[in-house]
Amino acid sequence: MSFEAEKSSPDTSSREPVFNLPTVVIVLILLMIALQLVMAFGSEEWATTLLLDWSFIPARLSAALGLDPLGALQLANGGPLTGDDAVVMQFLTKEDSVRPWTVFTYAVLHGSWEHLFLNIVWLAAFGAPLARRIGSERFLMLFGLSVTGGAALHFALNWYDAMPLIGASAGIAGVMASAALFMFQPGSPLARSTFSGEPEVHPPALRLNEVWHDRRVMWFLGLWLGMNFLTGVFSLTPGDAVNIAWEAHLGGFITGFFAFRSFDPWS
């Protein structure tokens, strides 16, 4: 996927790409868009089936592990569940299949076009330089590991929750944390690797004990953590009909931050 713009030179036949994304990033974006089209414009049955089969639902995993999410939720509510809440919870806790793939697949579903668009922007901005640095296969593994880390922390803090968790934010948070370790290094500006055709430069990434001495990285990390805190407290993500949790964002960010050097061939 590339968009072209004319140079300032009078020769309008000469063009250069100004937004050229790696194939792996394009595929992820197209997959998310395709599934959002199904969720938004497909039949209600398709949308419901996709949500139940692909979203990550902590209560379903809790029931499979022998916990009692229904009892915990009733205790938290101060009494038995009623109406649709009771029907949904009983359905989830009585299912035979735990659907282990949902620790990955929840990341390609979104609750609204607004949230999908925001994730596409962040994935394009930070995923492109990361994919070019570590390659498509390692990028997918690191992205998937961050997605799993997000699901794990969300489950640990919400193990009785029956609300579906969806959205690529945990994976993107891991991508952003990984990019923070090299994007401020001399010779590797994020804008150059994302938006122009200049040759890639891959300086060694910061070691973890060096991060605390780099003010730019610390400002970036602090800004991200602050935004994530505000999102969790004030629910700043617009238009979401289902749970896009700050715990998943934080879990993905921590995973990407500490796992990056294991995937980086230039460190």
Overall description:
- The chain is mostly helical and 267 residues long.
- It has 13 helices and two strands.
- The protein has a two-stranded antiparallel sheet.
- The two termini are 29 Å apart.
- The N terminus is likely disordered.
Chart the SSEs and their pairings.
Blueprint: E1 2-6, E2 15-20, H1 23-41, H2 44-54, H3 58-64, H4 69-77, H5 83-93, H6 102-105, H7 113-134, H8 136-157, H9 169-180, H10 190-195, H11 208-211, H12 215-234, H13 246-263
Antiparallel strand pairs: 1-2
Helix pairs in contact: 1-7, 7-8, 7-9, 8-9, 8-13, 9-13, 12-13
Summarize the structure.
Helix content is 62%, strand content 4%. Helix 8 runs antiparallel to helix 13.
Features:
267 residues; mainly alpha; two-stranded antiparallel ribbon; 2 strands; 4% strand
Poorly predicted sequence stretches spanning 5 or more consecutive residues: 1-18, 191-197, 236-243
Number of E strands: 2
CATH class type: Mainly Alpha
The tally of helices reads 13
Domain unit count: 1
- Main beta-sheet strand count, sense and barrel state: 2 strands, antiparallel
What structural class is derived from the secondary structure elements?
mainly alpha
CATH architecture classification: Up-down Bundle
Stated plainly, the CATH topology is called Rhomboid-like fold
